[in-house]
């Protein structure tokens, strides 16, 4: 009897994991409008802000009980779009969306501020933003290093899909996609039906020229969300740095598959700060000339955080099937200097970003594992290719750091490399470039 009950429990858990993502509710033959034919959208090379046309369509489709909005191929200016329940945005492959400068987000998967003020527990459900026939592009490559821009934010949303999208960036502030908890920062939200993005899938996303301090997707709050086929050049592809100063931050029951990063910090980053996070399962990680493939940070406490105890990820969390390929175009943070076995491993290979905080330099190894307040499982299937160092050490910990001062090494490097040729112009100048979907 006990064995039978245990077997049923395992089956239920497996079923829960498989279904911890978006459930398709979009009817391709259901009520559909065309934003060009029905709402006068013009392919004007993003000369005029036409966001009001899409907002009107979303409101009317929602009022009819839901349906699909097709955006034909073209180049448009769209910003600050809030989805409503049962509305699906289908964007034809090759379409380019250019957000207005100063409009921080293109698509908001959440209730708008007016509805939130009336009832903070309100949420939208059964929504999607997806490519039709291939990937669409959100293009903000004209932003610079300190400019703030996001493609999508998800907050109070249940059963959502983001699929087949390219972000064309220029090392701007923020990740292309951010998932965050509700704006309720004080009261307990454990009895809310939805308090963060819940039951979702984010799939087939490519992000170019991501900032070393950000990346493709960051999760401050999410539950039962699946991530698959994420590729970023620069930054972090799958960033679980749960650092928002909000009592209700936290991520739970997330799964991820095939996460890739090139010329960045890492493909997967875990940083709990003071958040008490649930189970995270990642299968398939690849870095190509990135500092690491995976970094797992310690729990810590920000000075003004509402929870003043170190955070963690659940002990049953795991990351497996990791590949790290060596290169010399990684985005390296100053303190990481001490994780190279010798100064000579990086000294003549660095260039510095304009902020002086990050550098471009060689990859270190596959995994940086730094927790002292919790543990997760790192699988044994780790492969390294082309590394001139660390081939016998795919995982480094705090104990492996050299005992020198990274600040002193930074000053030494700077004194030896005073010329402008050692300063990068990434994010400082605007250069157009071609993009294509990785998946």
UniProtKB/TrEMBL annotation:
Gene3D superfamilies listed in its UniProt record: Single-stranded right-handed beta-helix, Pectin lyase-like
Keywords: Signal
Source taxon at top rank: Bacteria
Signal peptide: 1-20
Cytoplasm in keyword set: no
InterPro entries on file: Pectin_lyas_fold, Pectin_lyase_fold/virulence
Protein name: Pectate lyase superfamily protein
Originating species: Lutibacter oricola
Lineage: Bacteria, Pseudomonadati, Bacteroidota, Flavobacteriia, Flavobacteriales
């Amino acid at each position: 009897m006990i064995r039978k009950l245990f077997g049923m429990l395992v089956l239920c858990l497996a079923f829960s994991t498989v279904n911890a993502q978006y459930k398709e509710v979009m009817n391709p033959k259901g009520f559909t409008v065309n934003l060009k034919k029905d709402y006068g959208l013009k392919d004007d090379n993003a000369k005029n802000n036409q966001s009001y046309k899409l907002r009107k369509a979303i409101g009317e489709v929602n009022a009819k009980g839901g349906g699909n909005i097709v955006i034909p191929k073209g180049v448009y200016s769209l910003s600050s779009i809030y989805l409503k329940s049962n509305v699906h945005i289908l964007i034809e492959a090759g379409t380019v969306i250019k957000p207005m400068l100063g409009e921080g987000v293109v698509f908001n998967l959440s209730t708008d501020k007016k509805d939130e003020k009336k009832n903070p527990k309100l949420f939208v459900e059964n929504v999607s933003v997806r490519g039709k026939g291939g990937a669409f592009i959100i293009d903000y490559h004209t932003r610079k290093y300190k400019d703030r821009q996001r493609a999508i934010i998800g907050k109070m949303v249940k059963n959502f899909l983001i699929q087949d999208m390219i972000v064309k960036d220029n090392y701007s502030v923020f990740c292309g996609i951010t998932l965050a908890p509700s704006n309720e920062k004080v009261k307990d939200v454990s009895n809310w039906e939805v308090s963060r993005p819940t039951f979702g899938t984010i799939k087939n996303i490519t992000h170019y020229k991501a900032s070393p301090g950000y990346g493709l997707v960051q999760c401050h709050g999410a539950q039962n969300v699946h991530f698959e086929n994420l590729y970023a050049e620069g930054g972090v592809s799958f960033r679980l740095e749960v650092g928002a100063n909000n009592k209700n931050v936290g991520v739970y029951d997330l799964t991820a598959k095939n996460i890739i990063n090139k010329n960045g910090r890492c493909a997967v980053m875990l940083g709990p700060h003071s958040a008490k996070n649930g189970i995270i399962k990642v299968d398939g990680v690849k870095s190509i000339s990135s500092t690491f493939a995976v970094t797992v940070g310690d729990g810590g406490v920000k000075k003004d955080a509402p929870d003043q105890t170190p955070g963690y990820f659940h002990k049953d969390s795991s990351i497996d099937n990791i590949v790290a390929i060596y290169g010399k175009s990684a985005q390296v943070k100053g303190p990481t200097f001490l994780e190279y076995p010798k100064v000579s491993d990086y000294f003549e290979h660095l260039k510095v970003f304009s902020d002086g905080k990050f550098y471009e330099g060689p990859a270190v190894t596959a995994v940086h594992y730094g927790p002292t307040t919790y543990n997760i499982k790192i699988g044994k299937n780790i492969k390294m290719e082309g590394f001139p160092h660390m081939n016998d050490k795919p995982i480094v910990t705090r104990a492996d750091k050299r005992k020198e001062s990274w600040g002193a090494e930074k000053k030494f490097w700077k004194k030896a490399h005073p010329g402008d040729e050692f300063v990068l112009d990434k994010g400082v100048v605007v250069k157009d470039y071609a993009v294509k979907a990785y998946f």
